[in-house]
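Marked as duplicate of an earlier ticket. Keeping the data here for the record.
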Amino acid sequence: MGDIISMECTECRERNYSTTKNKKIHRDRLELKKYCRRCRRHTTHREIK
């Protein structure tokens, strides 16, 4: 199955989300637009180690 990864807001650096990803298929870091509770708006969230 997939590995569990954490998602971090690129603006305030808060770790808001966790999701799964198949690292054999997707080698690049995942970037999604998600809602950040601290910023109170949709921002880009990036995969962290």
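See parent ticket for discussion. The chain has a mean pLDDT of 94.
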